[in-house]
Design a protein that fits this description.
Layout: H1 3-26, H2 31-50, H3 52-62, H4 68-91, H5 95-122, H6 133-136, H7 143-169, H8 174-205, H9 211-254, H10 256-262, H11 281-299, H12 305-317, H13 322-342, H14 364-376, H15 378-394
Helix pairs in contact: 1-2, 1-9, 2-4, 2-9, 4-5, 4-7, 5-7, 7-8, 8-9, 9-11, 10-11, 10-14, 12-13, 13-14, 13-15
């Protein structure tokens, strides 16, 4: 593998991290988010520093042959710890217990990383090996323990990661489950990486040569595993955002008929703020709902139960179900109130303070039903036509 084969998965992990950072910025105290971001940072660092061009550069900058070996092994070990800490936080439980278990994994794998450095210093690795360090020094005193120790730590983390994600995927649904299943597939490739590396190292211990497994087969498996895992981490977040955006846009659009109906009744003293089309959709949605609620306050004195009751009876008689009939009745009463308010620009209609004027339900679901009825109900259309004809006759 050349440098690009390492830098591409590192870039993919960087993209995954970029999607997570906004959520971390708004909720940096969340241990789960911190664990995910730590994992992505360490995984990207592993691929960056494990690339042969980076290995050669680090060795040259430090002046120590194979200095990159313990550096990469420590990064892999810390990455394994990040996987286990992530599992602990995903599993949940009492916060103190979660923190205690996380600290144990961090301290344990941190100790392994420290031992790797000590053993490397005690051993001798004078010949620089950019691609086959594991098999070349597999039988060297102290260095062989370094190699076996980091592979074991990585294998344990990969096994636990697969088991935990698989078990969790059976308990959830939707995009989260899809993401977990993708992560499981990615870590199966990581297990294959461990299997090929360990096979090549053990073969060296017993006098055989399977170096090609470690040099040419294992790195592509790790790259593919990293790319797939990155997709698994990003997919639930991206798809959830797209789903939320689509839901907000759909609600915004479906409230359009209701918003257009009550626009003439918005408070005259309230400045009309027009948001540009590039404004965040959430803000535009809030403004639209606020305009509707403000208009309802203005229309309160003009709501007439007689319009609503009559429209409800007609809707039920025509075969509409209970919810549809109520929405049609509210829409008819609202339309009549708008006409009455428009015909009374000076606000001559006064409701006594001890009366509670009829109000229209303002729950989002009710507003959507009313908006739909304003657009589709024959009763609303008939009322509008009657008002138009009356206006022409009066003219």
């Amino acid at each position: 593998m050349n440098g690009q084969d390492y830098y591409i998965p590192a870039a993919a992990l960087g993209v995954a991290l970029a999607f997570k950072l906004p959520a971390l910025r708004h909720n940096w105290r969340d241990p789960l988010l911190r664990s995910v971001c730590s994992l992505l940072i360490l995984a990207g660092s592993v691929f960056t520093f494990a690339a042969p061009p980076t290995i050669a550069a680090v060795n040259r900058w430090t002046g120590v042959s194979n200095f990159s070996a313990p550096l990469v092994y420590c990064l892999i070990t810390l990455f394994s710890a990040a996987c286990l800490v992530l599992i602990v936080n995903w599993r949940g439980g009492p916060p103190e217990q979660t923190r205690r278990i996380s600290r144990r994994w961090i301290v344990g794998y941190g100790g392994v990383a420290a031992v790797l450095v000590v053993l490397f210093v005690l051993g001798e690795a004078p010949v620089e090996r950019l691609r086959d360090f594991d098999t070349y020094y597999a039988s060297t005193p102290y260095i062989q323990v370094v190699i076996g120790l980091y592979l074991t730590a990585h294998l344990v983390a990969a096994v636990v990661m697969v088991a935990m994600c698989w078990r969790w995927s059976l308990q959830v649904r939707g995009w989260l489950r899809t993401g977990l299943m993708i992560i499981v597939i990615g870590y199966v490739f990581n297990l294959s990486y461990d299997a090929t590396k360990i096979s090549a190292v053990v073969a060296r211990w017993i006098g055989h040569d399977l170096d090609d497994l470690s040099t040419y087969v294992a790195p592509p498996l790790a790259s593919v595993g990293a790319l797939i895992s990155a997709i698994g981490f990003v997919l639930p977040l991206v798809c959830q955002r797209l789903s939320d955006t689509w839901k907000t846009w759909t609600t915004y659009r479906r409230l359009g008929p209701l918003w257009a109906e009550v626009q003439p009744c918005t408070p005259s003293g309230t400045p009309c703020v027009r948001m540009p089309w590039w404004s965040p959709l959430e803000l535009r949605m809030i403004q639209r709902e606020s305009d509707i609620h403000d208009a309802f306050l203005q229309l309160g004195p003009y709501f007439d139960d007689r319009h609503r009751d009559r429209a409800y009876e007609l809707a039920r008689a025509s075969g509409s179900d209970e919810e549809t009939a109520r929405a049609v009745a509210e829409a008819v009463m609202l339309t009549a109130a708008v006409r009455a308010r428009t015909a009374d620009p000076d606000g001559a209609v006064i409701v006594s303070s001890d009366e509670n004027p009829t109000d229209i339900p303002q729950a989002p679901r009710d507003l959507l039903r009313i908006s739909h009825a304003l657009r589709t109900s024959p009763l609303v259309a008939a009322l509008r036509q009657t008002a138009t004809l009356s206006g022409r006759a009066g003219g």
